[in-house]
Amino acid sequence: MVVGGIPQRPANFVPRTELQALREVLGRSQGAAVVTGMRGVGKTQLAAAVAREANDAGADLVGWIPAENNGVAHEALAEIAERFGVADPGRNPAVSAVRLRDFLSSRAESGLLVFDNATDPDSIRTLLPTGGATQVVITSTDRSFAALGESIDIRPYTREESLAHLQAATGLTDTSGAYRIADTLGDLPLALSAAAATITGRHLDYDRYHQLLRAQPLPRVLARRKGHDYPLSVTQAILLSVDTTEAATGDPELDEIVRWLLGAVAMLSPSGVLRRLLPDRGGRVDEALDRCVTSTLLSSSTTGDIVIMHRLIGRVLRERATSTKAIDHLTISSIDILTPQLFDPQEAWTQRAWGSHLIDQIDSLWDTGLPVTTPDQLLLLRVLEARNWAVHQLHEAGDLARSFAHACTTLTDCERILRADHPTTLTARGNLGQVYASTGQPDKAIPLHEAVLADGQRRLGINHPETLVFRNNLAYACRLEGRLDKAISLFEAIVVDSERLLGADHPRTLAYRNNLANTYACAGRLDKAVPLYKALVEDRTRRLGADHPDTLAARINVAYACRLEGRLDEAISLYEAIGIDSERWLGADHPNTLTCRDNLALAYGFAGQPDKAIPLLKTTLIVRTRVLGADHPHTRTCRNNLADAYILAGKLDKAIPLYKALLADSEQRRGADHEDTAVFRNTLAYLVASTYSRGRP
Prior knowledge:
Elements lengths: L1 E2 L13 H12 L3 E5 L6 H14 L4 E6 L3 H15 L8 H13 L5 E6 L4 H5 L8 E7 L8 E5 L5 H12 L4 H10 L4 H14 L3 H10 L4 H4 L8 H15 L5 H16 L5 E2 L10 H10 L4 E2 L5 E3 L2 H13 L3 H12 L13 H16 L9 H20 L3 H18 L5 H16 L3 H19 L4 H17 L2 H18 L5 H16 L3 H19 L4 H16 L3 H18 L5 H16 L3 H18 L5 H16 L3 H19 L4 H21 L2
Parallel strand pairs: 1-3, 2-5, 2-6, 3-4, 4-5
Antiparallel strand pairs: 7-9, 8-9
């Protein structure tokens, strides 16, 4: 099993003595093999070589972990944990990483983990297996990582290796000229590869290349930097290679695509960019990729589906853009790639993996620091709106922990850069309110939504579609808090205004009508809810199709109304049919499918069939815990339903542990004095007393 983007073997790869040293360390060491050295010295290629060898030798696991950022490293490890079935049920990547560590620590099958470009020794230390047969390689510029295992400090090529590389790559036999190039570039492998690509690309000899290299200007921002442990001629070599790759040819269309590609990838994730993310550009993007790979500015993973740019090359390209005031070109190139890929929230669940990759790219674009330097306010807004999309995507995909973290940082940046009542800031504030509501904190969500609505009405006007969204968010939070009269009043007005502004068949209008019907049902006003539910099934089937998630949700609501009205046989029949359709069209772990199972189990319970309800709820609880997490509100509700089913079946000994967990959770989240906490406490006391009474003689 290979997980991650292992770089392909580069052209003219030099089998250095350090490669054999790394093999020997892996063969004898019980700890990690730590490969250190400055940027561009070839640490990643050395690690990639042993990763490719492990895969060719049939290793049970080869995992490539981008470790520059703790969050990205945790995500990569969580993917491996998911493949082995040991991921955190709560979908916390950091917890999954630790669970994988523990799993691998006792595993006898062969494996290899590569932590590439690691930056935080303390964090990486907590992720390393303490036993088992999985080998570990760490690459880093930080030599303090040597404390984690046996270290190999990689130096630049020996002069003989430099000369051999240049001759093999260029075909030139002028030893003295090659010697001078190697000396000028400090024998750094990355720079020598760039030099060789320029020499062959421009058909130069060594003397002419050396003249061009010395004449190559440095970006002003780079020239002012101090403390680099490689000569500035390395940057000149990279820039000369870039200039060569971007030079005008007889194909101006391809030239433009090459310039666009380099600028865009320099702004995206250094962990790699999935090839499918790059637009086709008239069927010519592969030609552009080939030119950039030939010039060593880009590389591919062994699977060919990931495009990788060395971090030093990306930094040089960004600094060139800063120096030449071409920042906007890079930012536009990258955001133009990302924006068309930001799919509708309705697809959030089915496209979770793709969404995670997009979020990684959005984060990397922002982390370059360049978007905030642009004078183009509209361009900056596009990037901030992409970050808002990332928050909403994480929320809709059920990753509440990450959505909360992203919501907080995005809101902070929007408030710092924009006005507090700017529409993009209002969206960011609304997103945080939604996360609060979804994590069982409507008391925090309501004042936030009230403030957003007040600012939105003043800034956008009462008839703006986004103002309707803000009103809907407030109404939803009120319903969760139990303020049903206020929620109903808000939703009734929202539906009227949405029908007037957007039309009766608009998806948002249908969603608002659904929210109103649900609130009627919560308030026990079935005479109002049922007609709305039935009409929504017809309208959504006609407007969206029978297999759309919203249509299936509307059918679930009709069955729910039947249950509330006491027509249990009809409700059960509807739920069973909906469950089959939902699993076929959406998948067994889709939220709609799980909701249908929950409701079917409840109907079984109310119909006096707890023995049918219990196995269904147990299965659903396992799936909910796996895909949403143990702390997700829907998971807690399912756990509550299972406890109640045990009570109906007279299995109090099974219900008591669940209620103890529910009580502890409610005390922690909502406080000891909250009414929900009181309900759990009273129910638990009743169960314990009943068990004690049954046990008395």
